[in-house]
Amino acid sequence: MSAAGLGDHFAQHDKALYPHDAAGVPWTAAYIQATGDPITDLHENIAAEQKARTTYEHLISLTDDDGVIATLSFLREREVVHFQRFGEALMLVKEHYEHKHIFLLNCPVNL
User: Fold this and answer.
1) 57 by DSSP, 3-state: which?
2) C-alpha to C-alpha distance for 40 and 94, rounded to whole angstroms
3) Rounded to whole angstroms, how far apart are CA atoms 79 and 51?
4) What is the pLDDT of residues 18-72, one digit of tens each?
5) What is the average pLDDT score of the chain?
6) Contact 77, 26 (CB under 8 A)
7) In DSSP terms, which residues pair with 26 in a beta bridge?
8) Which of 80, 90, 27 lies closest to 49, judged by CA?
9) What is the rounded CA–CA span in Å between residue 56 and residue 106?
10) Which residues contact 89 (CB under 8 A, 6 or more apart)?
11) C-alpha distances in angstroms, 55 versus 1, 22, 39, 42, 103?
12) Is residue 81's pLDDT more than 60?
């Protein structure tokens, strides 16, 4: 396990899944950002996709293994697609908010 760089992790967690970042900081639900405002939340999602893309680029720069580079490149490109889809969703939400909405409650309507 030490040769694989898992000595500290193995000592504390054996082979159990224990989500943490590269510095060993444990994952927490506080990382999930949600405000209830779709525009704000979509911007947060877009930023997260860009951060993930950057992380994959950093990982690619740390290796010269063609298989690892190909895998990380594929994952990086998926982040780009996610970024684009969140951007499209953001545009749709903004378009929705630009239109006036009239809500009639308990009003008889003559058709």
Assistant:
1) helix
2) 11
3) 9
4) 787 778 788 888 777 788 899 999 999 999 999 999 999 999 999 999 999 999 9
5) 85
6) no
7) 20
8) 80
9) 54
10) 42
11) 24, 11, 25, 20, 45
12) yes
| Alpha carbon of residue 32 to chain centroid | 9
Residue 33 structure tokens: 């950002």
Q: What length does the chain have?
A: 111
Tokens of 87: 């951007």
Q: Which amino acid type is present at position 85?
A: R
b/e per residue, 38-74, with b = 16+ CB within 10 A?
Answer: eeebbbebbebbeebbebbeebbeeeeeeeeeeebee
Nearest-angstrom CA–CA distance, 13 and 53: 29
Is the model's pTM score more than 0.85?
A: no
CA separation for the pair 45, 82 (Å, rounded): 9
Report DSSP letters for 80-99, one per residue.
HHHHHHHHHHHHHHHHHHHS
